[in-house]
Each structure stands twice: as C-alpha cells, then as structure tokens.
C-alpha cells in the first residue's frame, strides 16, 4: 500500500486530501472510494482508519479535510457547516471521478457517523457517486437530536449562543471557539464522556484541534439529515447496531431510499465503530462486499 497527499478545490478553496492506493502503479485502475468521518474531525482520525483497510483490500481510498478543517483552506475555521460540507463532497466526487486510474464503474462513498448524512444530501444534489455506504451513520433532524442536548431548554441555550457568535463573526470576523470535546462542559460540542476523543492512542491525535466554532450550533441543530432519502437511488449499505445512534432512523432510511438497500446489523457502541478492531472488521467486510458488487472487483483490474 502507498499513500500520498493531494489537493483539489471546492468553490475556489483548496482542500487537502490523502490517497491510499493498493499499488504504486498509477496506470493500474482500481475502484475509488471517498471516505469521511464524524463531525468536528479531520481526515487522520476515523476516515484514514477505514481508508487504509479498504486499500488493503484493493480499493483506492481518498480522505480529505473539509473546508475550514485540518490542512484545508477556508474560513471560518472549525465550523460545522452542513451545506459547506455537502458542497465539498460534491467537489471531491467530481475530482475522484476524473482520475485516470479510477475504474469506470464510478466512485463510491463511505461516510462514518455524521458525514454519512452529508453524503446522502450530496448524492441527492447530483454528486457523481455510484455506491453509498454508511458506518454508524448519524442522521438527525431537530426533534430527534434535541434530547442529546438537554431537550428544548438545552437547544435554546445553544441556539442563543450560536446567534451571538454568528453576529460577532459577521460584525468583526472573530470566530468564537469552544472545546469540541470537554466532558461535563455543556458549552462544548461533545460534553459526554467519550474515550475516543480524550485518548491520544485513539482520536485525540496531534492533527486534531479540540475546538469548535460556536456559531456551528445553529446550522448543526437545524439540519435535516433525513430529508434527502427519497431522492437517493444509488445502491446503499447501512452498517449499524442497536448501540449506535438513531437505530430507528437507519431502519426508516432503509425503507425510504429510492434504490436498493442493504443493512448489516452488528454489535457495539457508536465510537467502537470508529476504531475498535472487531467493529471495524465487521464494517469493512460488509463495505468491501457492497462496493465490489457495485463498483467491481478490485482484483479484476
């Protein structure tokens, strides 16, 4: 396996990515899969973990940082802006679909956690993605996400702070930051104990800045990740478990999508699917079979 950095553009902003290839022969065509991770993360976290596994199975996997995150350009920084991320996914799919070493079966997309809902929306907008897979996918709307943040009162507090932060940014250009992860701190993006984000051997890596632009609350909480379902007809796979977030949403999406759908139901908690060997192996095996059936066998090219 070989990896190397790439850059491409989205709405004039330079995005930084990494290619994970099963071979250093650039004339060898392979199926290409784009891989992205959870909200508030960078490519070196769960995305690279899954990309490496897919490359070992013969796929070319591409990870990238969204606008305003990691090594990519763009302002405001550390802002969870769903529409901006959806546009980046469209741009990444267009870039990947034109690579000369990509097979002509089309590009696949693997979204882990929250980026799965953005990919679903990008496909509905016409992104050239021929096969979709979600692992521990987070698909929310405001009524379903509110209990994570203390119900109506907690949501109102966050929306009020986001409005103030947005006004400050528009008036002065200043981006007010809060921790992305800080157990017990209700102003943080994630305030419950999650070892993945606190453990340097897991997700608390040097490339990740533990910050979130506070203006993110408004676009995040009001985004409807379920709305695109009926507009998506590409073959899709959902890898999930009862221990992951919104399992009933996954069951509903499996019925609502316009195209063929497979579901692989495993065991484990949400963050187990980010990096734990048993859950990653279960997920990658299902994803591998799905992409092979749609995009073609990597060993056949």
Automatic annotation (TrEMBL):
Segments forming domain Xaa-Pro dipeptidyl-peptidase-like: 12-139
Pfam families in alphabetical order: Peptidase_S15 (PF02129)
GO MF, one example: hydrolase activity
Protein name: Xaa-Pro dipeptidyl-peptidase-like domain-containing protein
Species: Thermasporomyces composti
């Amino acid at each position: 396996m070989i990896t190397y950095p790439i850059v491409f553009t989205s709405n004039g902003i330079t995005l930084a990515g990494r290619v994970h290839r099963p071979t250093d022969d650039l004339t060898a065509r392979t199926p290409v899969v784009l891989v992205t991770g959870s909200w508030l993360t960078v490519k070196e976290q769960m995305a690279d973990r899954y990309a490496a596994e897919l490359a070992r199975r013969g796929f070319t996997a591409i990870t990238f940082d969204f606008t305003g995150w990691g090594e990519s350009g763009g302002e405001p920084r550390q802002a969870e802006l769903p529409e901006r991320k959806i546009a980046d996914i469209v741009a990444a799919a267009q870039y990947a679909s034109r690579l000369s070493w990509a097979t002509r079966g089309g590009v696949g997309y693997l979204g882990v956690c929250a980026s799965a809902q953005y990919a679903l929306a990008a496909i509905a907008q016409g992104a050239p993605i021929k096969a979709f897979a979600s692992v521990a996918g987070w698909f929310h709307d405001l009524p379903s996400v509110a209990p994570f943040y203390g119900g109506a009162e907690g949501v109102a507090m966050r929306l009020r702070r986001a409005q103030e932060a947005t006004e400050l940014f528009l008036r002065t250009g200043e981006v007010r930051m809060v921790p992305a992860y800080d157990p017990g701190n209700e102003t943080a993006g994630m305030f419950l104990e999650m070892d993945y984000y606190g453990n340097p051997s897991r997700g608390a890596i040097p490339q990740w800045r533990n910050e979130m632009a506070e203006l993110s609350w408004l676009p995040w909480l009001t985004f409807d990740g379920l709305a695109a379902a009926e507009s998506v007809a590409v073959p899709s796979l959902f890898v999930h478990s009862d221990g992951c977030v919104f399992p009933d949403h996954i069951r509903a999406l499996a019925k609502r999508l316009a195209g063929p759908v497979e579901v692989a139901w495993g065991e484990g908690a949400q963050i187990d699917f980010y990096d734990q060997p048993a859950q990653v192996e279960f997920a990658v095996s299902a994803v591998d079979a799905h992409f092979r059936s749609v995009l073609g066998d990597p060993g056949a090219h």
